[in-house]
Design goal:
The structure is a homodimer. Chain A starts with a strand and ends with a strand. In chain A, strand 10 and strand 11 form a beta hairpin. By secondary structure, chain A is an alpha/beta fold. Chain A has helices at residues 37-41, 47-53, 63-66, 117-128, 139-147, and strands at 3-11, 58-62, 90-94, 102-103, 109-113, 132-137, 153-159, 161-162, 176-177, 179-186, 189-195. Chain A has one domain: Dihydrofolate Reductase, subunit A (3-Layer(aba) Sandwich), CATH 3.40.430.10.
C-alpha cells in the first residue's frame, strides 16, 4: 500500500509562511527566512532530514508551491526550481486551471490536477504502486490532506522563530491523536516525526 | 538579575487548552488530557523536566490557573492543588479583584495582584532578588509576558495531539527570533527549550 508522508518547516508558533506572499517574497512578510536556514546553513548537520524530503516516489503540491501565479497559466513559468528540479519523479500540482504535462530535466514531470486532493492522490498511487508519496506543501495543501486523514507520517521541522501571522499548519484540521516516532535537535531546527493512525 | 522562565505544555497545533474551560474540565473540551499524560504516565522518564517546572523561587499565574471562578472571589477556593500546593514559594496570582494573601502548607503563599503583569513581576523580583521566577500559565498570561518581552527562557512540552481550538500559545506575540537551547523526546512528549534574547 502506498505510504503518504509530509515534510513541512514551521515556526515555533506554527506558521509555514508569513502574510503577503509574492514572486519576490514567496514565503511572505516577517522573519520567514528563519524557517529554512537549517537547510541552507547547516546542510551536513541535517543531511538525513534533507535527503528524506526528496526521497519519495511521487510528490503532490499546491499551486502556490509551484509558482506565484493565480488564475490562467503563464506557460513560461515552470516552477521555482530551474530546469532540473530536485524531485526527479512525477509531481502532481493542484490547480483549478488545466495545463499540459511539463517534463523537466532530471526526471521531474509536473502534472496538473484539477480534480482536488483525492484525484491527485489517485494519480500518484497509480504511478507509484506501493511507493512513498510526499505532500510537498504548502500549508494549505498539507492541511487539506491532514483534515481528510490522508497522511501517514508528518515530519515537522520547527525553526526557532515566532512569525505571528501567515499560513498556519493544522488550521482546519480536526482534533486527533498523533504518535511520536522521533525527535532530534540540531543547531537551527528541531525535527519531530509523527505517525498518524487512521 | 532575576531570570524569568516559563514551562507550558502545548499540542502539536499549539494549544494549551481546549475551548469551554469549567470547574469539571479545567482544560476545556477536546483531547486535552493528552497534553499532560507525559507528566502523569511517564514521570520517571521526564523527571528532570518535571522538577524544573516547580524549581523556581517565585511563580506568577493567571487567575484561571488558580481557579475556575470569575468576578468576585469565592473565599472558600484556595487553588486546584489542595492544602499543600507544589510550589512551596510565593505565587503571584493576576486578578482584577483584590484578595488577602493566602498562606498554604508547605511554604506556598498566594498573593493576589491587581496591577497587571509588570506589577506581579516587580513583586516577584522584590521577593526573590536574583532568583528564578516562573510564569506558570495559562497561555493567556504567558502570551502577555511574551508579548512584553519579559520571558528569558521558554520551555515547550509538545504533546502528540491536535486539539483544534482553545487558548493558543503565541497568540498576539510579535515576530521575533528565538535561540534553541535543547530538545529531547520521550515517549509522550517532545521538550524544546528556547532562550529569548531581548
Amino acid at each position: 500500500m502506498a505510504r503518504v508522508v509530509c515534510d513541512i518547516s514551521i515556526s515555533a508558533d506554527g506558521f509555514a509562511t508569513g502574510v503577503h506572499q509574492t514572486l519576490e517574497r514567496p514565503f511572505g512578510d516577517g522573519p520567514v527566512e528563519q524557517l529554512h536556514r537549517w537547510m541552507f546553513e547547516t546542510p551536513d548537520e541535517n543531511a538525513a532530514e534533507r535527503a528524506a524530503i526528496v526521497a519519495a516516489d511521487a510528490f503532490i503540491m499546491g499551486r502556490n508551491m509551484f509558482g506565484p501565479g493565480r488564475g490562467e497559466w503563464d506557460l513560461e513559468w515552470s516552477g521555482w526550481w530551474g530546469e532540473d528540479p530536485p524531485y526527479h519523479k512525477p509531481v502532481y500540482v493542484l490547480t483549478h486551471h488545466e495545463r499540459d504535462d511539463l517534463p523537466m530535466r532530471g526526471g521531474t514531470t509536473f502534472h496538473f490536477i484539477t480534480g482536488g486532493i483525492e484525484a491527485a492522490l489517485t494519480r500518484a498511487v497509480e504511478a507509484t504502486g506501493d511507493g512513498t508519496i510526499a505532500i510537498a506543501g504548502g500549508a494549505t495543501t498539507v492541511n487539506q490532506f491532514l483534515a481528510a486523514g490522508l497522511i501517514d507520517e508528518l515530519r515537522l521541522h520547527i525553526a526557532p522563530v515566532v512569525i505571528g501571522a501567515g499560513e498556519r499548519l493544522f488550521d482546519g484540521v480536526p482534533p486527533q491523536g498523533l504518535e511520536q516516532i522521533s525527535a532530534r535537535v540540531s543547531t537551527l531546527v528541531t525535527h519531530i516525526s509523527y505517525k498518524i493512525n487512521h
